[in-house]
Amino acid sequence: MTLRCGRFALDLSRPRVMGIVNVTPDSFSAAGRSPDPARAIDHARRLLADGAAIVDVGGESTRPGAADVSEADELARVLPVVEALAADGAVVSIDTRKPAVMRAAIAAGAAMVNDVAALGAPGAIEACAAAGVGVCLMHMQGAPATMQQAPDYADVVADVRAFLVARARACEAGGIAADRIVLDPGFGFGKTLAHNLALLRGLGSLAAAGYPVLAGLSRKSMLGAVTGRPVDERLAASVAAALAAVARGAAIVRVHDVRETVDALAVWHAVQLETDRG
Ligand code: 7PJ
Q: Which of 224, 256, 266, 263 is nearest to 21 (CA)?
């Protein structure tokens, strides 16, 4: 499978890593915490050197309970970072829910839009369709401020899959080609531990919808719940979760710890090739 993102074509015949570049003062993940654009650029260049295929630049924290950020603040945080990395020739993803930020980041060279609201804001699909960028459509129940209060599903795997396929169809109807669309179940976004584990087990069912699947599990609280470890001690759990996701059909994993994840996936891929050959 190939994912087209702007002028890039990403070969997904092996799993790829998206490196997280937070440009937020309140990010809960210390290593990705770079409110200063220059530091964020350095951090992103390190992730690319470590083997990230995509860097995901975000200026709005969507962690549970996070406050909203203004459009002006978000733009001031992300634009210098997107511009510098795109000039390097990197595949840059802009992590935003705001169409104006999408448009400005695309003008600055972003090749992909990663939206936790699945391009639900008025004008978001149009902004992406016109530019030919890749899009990651993520499922979220509720809004970041309240989403963890009472997550509720009839059948979490079926509900999330139905939502994402409907959003993909809406994107295609709006002019975004199918080979530019990625689906993401949104681990931790309005989900209990049981919901998250069910989604991870059922990832194959989402992959069967025919679009590449992206999984974001890195350092998340569900890994804290499983291991009893605080956020800065979840490296091994995050690598294990990335492997579990890829083994169930994820094509891209969104992670903080790129170097370790790339190594783990290289081993997984080598074993996989042997298996394929019989
Ligand atoms: C995700 C995301 C995710 C996508 C965040 C964190 C919280 N975008 N943005 N998927 N998570 N596509 O990084 O822990 O899971 S913010």
A: 256
254 is catalytic: yes
SS3 state of residue 22: strand
Q: Residues lining ligand 1, CB < 6 A?
A: 20, 62-63, 95, 114, 116, 136, 138, 184, 186-187, 214, 216, 220, 254
The answer to whether the pTM exceeds 0.90 is: yes
Q: What digits encode the pLDDT tens for the residues 154-201?
A: 999 999 999 999 999 999 999 999 999 999 999 999 999 999 999 999
3-state secondary structure of 252: strand
Q: Is the pLDDT of residue 29 over 60?
A: no
Identity (one letter) of the amino acid at 212? P
Q: Which of 4, 97, 98, 254 is catalytic?
A: 254
Strands (E), the chain: 2-5, 8-11, 16-22, 54-58, 92-95, 112-115, 134-138, 181-184, 214-215, 252-255
Q: What is the mean pLDDT of residues 256-262?
A: 98
Pocket probe mutation, ligand 1, options 93, 113, 114, max atoms within 8 Å of Cβ: 114
3-state secondary structure of 217: coil
Q: Residue 67 has what pLDDT?
A: 77
* CA within 13 Å, CB half, 32: 27
Distances in whole angstroms, Cα of residue 111 to Cα of each of 102, 117, 127, 197, 270: 10, 18, 12, 31, 29
Q: How confident is the model at residue 275 (pLDDT cuts 50, 70, 90)?
A: low
